[in-house]
Structure formats: structure tokens, C-alpha cells
Amino acid sequence: MLHALTLILLCQLAGETVVLLTGLPVPGPVLGMLLLLGWLFLRGGISEEVGRTADTLLAHFSLLFVPAGVGVMLHWERLQGQWPAIAAALLLGTLLTLAVTALTMAGVQRLLATVRRRRGVPPVTDSPFTEIWVYLSASPLLWLTATLVCYLAADRLYRLGRGSPLLNPVAVAVALLIGILTLTGTPYAVYFDGAQFVHFLLGPATVALAIPLYRQRERLGALAVPIGAALLVGVLTASVSAIGLAAWLGADIATQISLAPKSVTAPVAMGISEKLGGIPSLTAVLVVSTGIVGAVFGTGVLRLLRIRDDAVKGVAMGVTSHGIGTARAFQVSPTMGAFSGLAMALSAFLTAALLPSVLDWLGLIGG
Questions:
Q1: How many Å separate Cα 182 from the centre of its chain?
Q2: Rounded to the nearest 10 degrees, what angle do helices 310-332 and 224-248 cross at?
Q3: Please, are residues 209 and 334 in contact by the beta-carbon 8 Å criterion?
Q4: Cα–Cα dist 289/296, whole Å
Q5: Whole-model pTM?
Q6: What are the pLDDT digits (tens) for 315-359?
Q7: What is the pLDDT of residues 227-246, one digit of tens each?
Q8: C-alpha 266: how far from its chain's center?
Q9: Of residues 59 and 229, more confidently modeled
Q10: Number of other CB atoms surrounding residue 2 within 10 Å
Q11: How far is residue 284's CA from residue 300's CA, in Å, rounded to a whole number?
């Protein structure tokens, strides 16, 4: 396991280095995931140790988003003042993006399948006393332990609820921790001093997404066009729907811009928001909230749309609700999780490239 973890960390370090040197608008772990995927293709396979280590990291992928989710505490005032607009953009915009992305990919798949049949090409198949408290609350150990305990309790509740998305362990754990911090008067910064140890693992776990994706290599080529179409339509729908709904319900321009990249993984979304005049810390909260909405309601929406292909469902979840959606996707199936991870990575690149032009066209930024 040590060798495999070293490989994953090296890929993350390489990705962080490339981003630092080139200024690419993507997180280092996402680039590290693509580097590891490329290495696996060159090597021609996955060793048992690497596969087992990646599977261990990804088995509790959703836990790694809990510390960031608790950060919603930092923006109570703005959220209370503009909650109708923000809620509509988060809920309706997210569900619309999910549906449009899934239907686009499924439609292009059907179109290509028709073309292949006419050409005679065979179909591709799925192979937690005051003095004690003062002492403990200043210790990172307390909040690291509290995060793990709350998540384990939330995961247990999720399992008792037979996997109901309404009992999503990230959402439940975040709510429990916010309640504890509010009742004890603990600042988020103090909490994060302990929870950062969990948060750190998000990077290696993102890199490890290359492993399940490589296992789906036989389908990647055949699904390139449907995935590309779904990414383009999904990214545009996510941004335009969020801005439109927020503007219609009276949100100010800073909030609109902060909402625009809500479906992208947090480091990219915060960078875009800062560059275009939004509020990066608010964007981070909105990103996590979007992920939770997608994770809670996504599978139900896809079921109503009669989307059965795990690749299509995965791409829709990845485009719409980034890493939290990807964690939910892995709870459904490895295939859905793999394609969600791919879509999460590629939509980060595409959103960074397209969103400035979209906001310029909508008149939210100058030139």
C-alpha cells in the first residue's frame, strides 16, 4: 500500500507543480488524476496494490467533503438576505442541469447507435466542565474526531434508511457538525484546524479516480462524442440557469457571479469567481450546496427520466454536482462513479474556458 500511495501522491504533486508553473485553471489533483490515467494506459494495466489502495480511498470519498460543507456557517447573513434566489438557483438550476446533461448524452448515444446499425458496426457493451472543553476545543484532535464520529453516525443512518438519498451522509454530517459548532460557539477556523486532516485526503482521493476510470477504458472511445456533447450542454445550462434564476429573484451581481460556477469542483470555481468579480468564499459554500442537492435528488431525477445507463448517469452527476455527486455515484456503481469523475474533471476545464465569455455576453462583466 505504501508504494501505491506514494504513486498517487507523486501524481498529485506533479499536477500541483504543473498548475503552479503554467497557471492552468484546474486543481492540481484533477490534473494529477489525468496524469495517473495516462500512466496506466502507458503501463497497460493496474497493479493489485494500486487498485486496492484506490478502492480504499474511494470507499469513503463522501467523508472528505464534510469539512468544506461546514463552511456554510461563514455566510449566514448573505444566505438569509438572498435565500429565495440562491435556493432557486441551487435547486432548480442543479436539477435542470442534471436532466439536460443526461438527456443530451443519452440522445447522442441513441443517434450514434442508429448510425452504427446502419453501417453494420457492432454495438459497444459494458464489459464530540468548561476547563476540559476549553482545552479540548483548541485541540485539532477534537474536531478531527468529531468529523469522523458525525460522518460515521450519518453513514449508519443512511444504511438504516436503506440508502435513501434524503439521508445523504455528507448533508447529515454537515448539519450535525454545524449544530455542534453553533451550540458550542466554536468558530469555523478552529474547527477546520482539526478537520483539515480529513480535507487533505481529498487530493489523493481525486487522483485515485483514475483507477476506476481506467477500468472503463473500453467504453471511453465509443462514448467520446456523447460525453463531449453532454459536457458542453451541461456546463452552459449550469451557469446560465443559475444566473437567470438568481437575477429573476433579485440577487445582486456579486451573488450571481458567485453562483455561476457552482457546478464545478471548489478550487476551480473559487478561482473563476475571484477572477470575474464574485465572492470566492461564497462560491465555495454554493459549490458544496450544489453537490449535496445533486447527491440527494440526482438519482431520483435520473430514474424519472428513465436513464438506465450508468455511464450517462455518471456524466450527468459529475457535470452537475462535481465531487459530492461523484461520491454518490460510487454508492450506486463503480461505472457510474468512474464516468462521474471524468465528467467532473473535464467540466472544470470547459467551465474555466467558457464562463468569462458567457458572463460577458450576459452583461455581468465588462469586455
A1: 26
A2: 70
A3: no
A4: 11
A5: 0.74
A6: 999 898 888 888 888 888 888 988 988 888 888 888 888 888 888
A7: 999 999 999 998 899 898 88
A8: 8
A9: 229
A10: 8
A11: 25
Taking residue 135's Cβ as centre, other Cβ atoms within 10 Å add up to 11
All three cell numbers of 3, joined, read 508504494
Q: Identify whether the C-beta of residue 277 lies closer than 8 Å to the C-beta of residue 254.
A: yes
Q: Which residues contact 49 (CB under 8 A, 6 or more apart)?
A: 1, 3, 4
Query: Which triple of cell numbers denotes residue 336?
Result: 457510474
Query: Alpha-carbon distance 148 to 64, whole Å?
Result: 10
CB atoms within 10 A of CB 77: 8
Contacts of 5 (CB under 8 A, 6+ apart): 53, 204
Question: How far from 293 is each of 36, 70, 112, 163, 339, CA to CA, in Å?
Answer: 30, 15, 31, 16, 19
**Measured distance CA(270)–CA(27) in Å, rounded:** 11
Chain segment 310-321, per-residue pLDDT in tens: 999 999 998 988
> What average pLDDT does range 8-26 have in this prediction?
83
Q: Percent of the chain scored above 90 by pLDDT?
A: 6
Residue 216, SS3 per DSSP: coil
At 1 the pLDDT is: 66
DSSP 165: G
Instruction: Measure the CA–CA gap between 267 and 282, rounded to whole angstroms.
Output: 12
Q: How far apart are CA 176 and CA 178, in angstroms?
A: 6
How far is 169 from 164, CA to CA, in rounded Å? 10
Q: HSE-up of 141 (CA within 13 Å, CB side)? A: 4
